[in-house]
Every structure is written in structure tokens, then in C-alpha cells.
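Reading group handout, session on sequence-to-structure problems. Before we discuss, look at one worked example. The prompt was deliberately terse, the way you'd type it at a terminal:

> structure Iron complex outermembrane receptor protein

The input record follows.
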Amino acid sequence: MAAKGTIMNRLSGLFASVAVLAIAAPAVAQNAPSPALAPADQPLPADGAATDAAQGTGEDIVVLGFGQSRQIQSITAADLNRLTPGSSPLKAIEKLPGVNFQAADPFGAYEWAVRISLRGFNQNQLGFTLDGVPLGDMSYGNVNGLHISRAILSENVARTDVAQGAGALGTASTSNLGGTIEFFSDAPRDTGNVTGGGTYGSDNTYRAFARIDSGDLGGGLKGYLSYGYLSTDKWKGDGVQRQHQANGKIVKDLGTLGSLSAFLNFSDRREQDYQDLNLNIINRRGLRNDNIADNYPLALQIAKVAQNQAAVAAGTAQPWTGAGTTFPTGFGTVDDAYYDAGGLRRDYLGGVTFDAHLTPELSLTTTGYYHDNKGQGSWITPYSPTPAGAANADGTPIAAASPLGFRTTEYAMKRGGALSNLVYETSANTLEVGGWLESNTFTQARRFYGMTDSATPNRDTLEFQKNPYRTQWDGKYSTDTMQYHVGDTIRLADDRLTLNAGWKGFYVVNRAVMLPATTSPLAIGRITAKDWFQPQAGILFKLAPSTELFADYKENVRAYVSSATTGPFSTTQAGFDAIRGRLKPERSRTAEGGLRFRTGPFQASAVGYYIDFANRLLGFANGAGIIGNPATLNNVGSVHTYGAEVAVNYRVFRPLSLFASYSYNKSKYADDVLSATGAVLVATDGKMAVDSPEHMLKGEVVLEQSGFTARVGADYMSKRYFTYLNDQSVPGRVLVDASIGYRFEGDGALHGVSILGSVTNLTDKKYIATIGSNGFTASGDNQTLLAGTPRQFFVSLKKGF
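And the output record:
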């Protein structure tokens, strides 16, 4: 295996190659297929879908992946257009079988609460890409990527492919134990165009979007610039959530040489958090319990009482004489309501792709990319009171102590990489060889900033903080990734039989050091994950023009991540030293098989699957999330999963389409959690996996006729456990969304104007949305739940010029 310097040399070489091509070409080129997919494995929309997607009408609700040897479905831009503008592309795919999507806001964009899982694998065990560029595991803490809601404006997403079990062999991910979700950006228009739109709705929601397309400037050169803005009040409590985004893309058709493309995306997201709940808080205070960001004196009072109670329990003097030891009426614990919390993220993501047609049979696609991130997550906490003399925001000392402190987790990421994919295609055979290199430097710090004991707060959670009075830890983490893949697809018997097989391998090096002048309980050191042979094979057989059988098998390994808050370095130094020599990366083996059928307007697919998930890594949460204790990490055995998925798409007649999906998933732990001496710590053997609903049933009705459109969707999910011993769960729920709109055609000032009215949670269901926001515990109640959004209304206008 090459050392870090060798990896960086190769990475620099690939970047240099792309840069030379960019300089040599007159401009940048047409959007290329993802380098993670060989042409034979590229899922394509149904006939006519590309044209219909541009118009937003007349398209099947879901493309069911005919011609693929694995379970895969696609959602196009037309489907996103039916949702409230600004909705996350993840919200559009929640209707697909096997997809468990949770959010605590109507757009599915509030990142602390957003969770998505496939067939029992949670978000950080999946793979995500945008035009082939890796997005990491899209975790909240920005360890190795960024969330899709920051990577691109939803209006610029052309297609989303969901592979519930087996992602494409060359997907740039070392976390996809489960499936993959691949996003593809829209191509610039051939003709010049300006599009603008605005949305207003519940909780003072304002959303604006504008896009300018240059059209063909000559010689196949075209591009677009777009901007989006979102501002909304929280639906409960006090606070706002805001985001600025800008996307730019240019492409250049190089004729027989191929094409060249480039993009640059920017996002600045600032959001105040919702309060994490547990069942006890919900029973006492209801789902609308939240942070008390509009009442700083009350937050001070609660913190003083809690600290007085702790002093009494310890037999020491009460620090806040006069505050007493009794909480204000309606409050039972210090954790019932914190003052405020927030999340700030600023991202730049750019890339260049050269799609070279070397010969009629041979093509080479190479992408270089770079991502820069700055982030901050904050809690104003009663667990870290401010001492007298601590620095204020302007650097001056704070005269008196305060029972509250401003605690942050601060992030900075600089990661760059390159992907290259060589494809040789003949009439019956497609051979693919490719590789991916990435170097990621990630710094993460835990700092404390002074708060005042005053009538109003002296710091704002929507601003990056200055002048800390304490740094608990400040770590520098690096991850160097090298991955390759080899695959072959053979088509036989007049294309009735398709066989594909191949493998991938990776080597990932993780390092952690603590920066000078800090002391930390967290681990430093080096650990690696390596597996050069992870096989994958599939078969597709067409029984008839309308019917096909498919089956596939794959093995995947998940590399470790480098972070202070997750992965091997998130434990103590003693804990890391104890596990480093025996820790194994997580591994999965997935087998699935199914049938697809279509005749006229009716399409259906059915699949069954089995998953053996081994070397499961478990980090036990220790105490309330706001305290920030190190996790306890260990390999704790296996999970065995089996299930089935059915999807049906029926165009009753041209204007009316129906879609329905059903998923059955049984994910059970196959081992107990044992101590180093073999004693049973947690008897998990036979228990259901957390956050894995056994049943999900989704349906959607879409009517489109003469500019008129209407949609109603329903989503049922059975109960979910949030403890490993299954003694705590949240009940099942049914959610209903709807929209209705009209697009004006013909001549006149209204030509091209569209209006859309939409409502989320139509029945105003009261429910628990996200579970696991602060991790999972073995048993008992845990402050790790987030309430779902009540009914929300929105009206949107859009106009193209």
C-alpha cells in the first residue's frame, strides 16, 4: 500500500490531468454520465422521460429499473416539482420501497433531524454521490462529506437513483454496507431562459429561486447560474432556519473528443434547533415542548436551580443563593428545556469532469473535485456554567459568573479527490475498470464561550463564535482513501440474458492528533481498514418482452471514520488502545432476487432479500447528549435481515397515475453484547434492530391534465424501537401530503406561469418523527426523539421568461 505522500502524488497527478484538459478546451462540457456507472449499468428513465421531466408533466411517478440486475428505482425532476419548492430530494424518494425517511420540518432539510435508512442500514452505512462525486455518509457532523440539501439546490436535481441493496460497483463510497443513493444534476438548457419562483407559507416561510440559462453560445458551450433562499420560523418554540445557496454549471461539447463540464456550488445554512425529547418529557409537557430561546431569564433560573440541587446532593454550598432548589412550575428536570441550540454550515463544492471518447468502443471519464466546509454546532448548556472573568464576545472579561455556558463543536474540512473510469464496450460485452482517491483533512474542536447572568443573552446561536474561555479538545483528523473496481457485463441470447460480475477493493488510513495547548480525554493514533476483494455479481433474464427476472449478490466493507464524535477516535485513549488491535471494520453480505413486469400502462416489481451484517460497531451513548461524554465503541456481533419489497406503478389513463409500495423488513441482532471477559453486558440476541420498522406502506395518486396537476400521497410506518433491548419504542403513524396546481399555457402575460398549493401532514397527525438524534441506549427512556411537523400550508408561484 502506498504511503500518504504517494497517494497525494497520484491525486495531484489526476487533478493536473483534468486541469490541462480544462485549459486546452475552449470551455467546459456537456454533463457526463456518472463515472461510478458503466454504460450497461446506467439506469435510464422510461421512454420520453427526459423530455417530460423538462416540462414537468406526463411522466411515470417512478422508474422501476427495468433492464437492471439489481433492485433500483429512479425519481426524476418532475416528481420533485410536485413537492413544495425547497424540499429535500430525500423527501421525494421516501415513497420508494425499503426507504425509511424521517424529518422534523416540512421540507426534510433540517439536518439535525433528517435520517434515512435502507433495509435496516442507517444513514452512515449507506453511500451517497452527486454526479459521481462522493458526499460521504451525509452525517450531521460533517466528518467526510456534506448533506444533499447543501450540495445542490433541489430545483437543479434531474434524477435520483436509489439502489436499496446493491449500489453500482464503482460508487465512490467506503460506507455503503447497505444501498446507495445517487443524485444527478440538471444539464444546462439548449436555449436561453430565465426562471424565477417564490413560495410563502406556514410559520413565515419565504423561499425564492432564480436560474439563468445561457443557452448554446456556439460550439456546444452553455451553462447556468442559480440562486435559492429559504427563511422560516420554527414551527414550535422560538427561532429561525435560513439558507443561502448558489449553483453554477458550464458544459462544452467537444464533438468526437467527448465533453467537458464543471460545477461550483455554495451553501450557507444557519438553523436554530428543536429540543430533543424523551417519552417522559412528552408525557409531561407534550410534543410541542421546545427550547426556551425567547425567555433567557427562565433559562438562567432553571440552570441555577439544577446547580443548587447538585450541590445539595454533593453536600456542598449552594452556588446560587436565593434561587432555591425547586424548578419553576411545569418543569421537572433541567433537561426539560434548554435555552437554545443551533447549527451553522458553510460549504463550497466544485468539480471538473472530462468524458473522453478515445475510440468508438473505448471511453474514459475522469472527475476531480474539492470540498471546503466550515461548521459549528452549539448548545447553550447548564452543564458548563461560565466562570467570572471568562471572555465576552468582544474579548472583554465577564465580571460575574453565569449558570449557563455556550458549548460548541466546531468543524473545518478540506477534502479533494479524483475518480476515473475506463469502459470498453462491444456488441455483447462491457468491461469497466476504475479508481477513486481522496484526501480529507478534518479538524474538530470542543470549545466553551462565556454567557452572562443578565436580562438578555450576549451571544447568538446563528453566528460563528469568537473568544472562547476554554478549549476542551482540538483534534486534527486525516483520512486517505484509495479504492478501485473491476467489472464486466455480458449480454447473451439476443440480449435476453445479461450477466455481470466484478469486485472492488479499498485501503483507508485514519489518523488523529491533538493540536498543541489542549488536553483531551479523546484518543489519538492511527488505524486502517483494508479489503482488496469485495465481489459483486448479478444476472438478468427476460422471460418475455414484458417480464424479467433478476438476482444479485454483493459484499461490502465499511471503513472507519476520523472524528472526535464518531468512530474509533471518539472514545478515550485507554479505550482506543484496548480496541485498536482487535477492532474489525463492519462487513455486509447481501443477496436479492426478484421479478419485474410491465404491460401497457401497468408496471410492477417484487424482490426478496437476505443480509448478513457482521462485525457491527456499537458506540453506546453515555448520558444526555448535551453533556458530550465519550462513547464506548466495540464490535458486538451480527445482524441478520430478511425482507421483501413490492412496487406498482399504474397509469390508469393518460392524466391519472397511481403508485404504491410495500416493504417488509425483519432485522434482528444475532449476538449479545459481551465484555472483554465474555460476560453478557446487554442481551441483544434476537432483539429487533433499532429504528427498523417492520412494515412500511406508501401510496401516491397523481392527476395531470391540460396544465392542471394534483397529488395526494400517504405513508404508513409501523413502530420503531429506540433501545437495543426493545423496551422502548415509538408507535406507528400514517402521514398524508397533498398538492394542487395549474400552469398557464397559450399567449399573454400569464404564459408559463404556474401556481402550486401544497400541504404537508394533511390530517395534522401528532407523532414522533426522528429517533436516535442523540444515539441509542441499551434500555430505558432517552432524550433522543424529535417531534414531527404539524399541518403546514404553502403557496408557490413560478415563471419562466
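Points for discussion. First: The domain at 55-291+338-799 is CATH 2.40.170.20 (Maltoporin; Chain A). Second: The longest helix spans residues 4-24.
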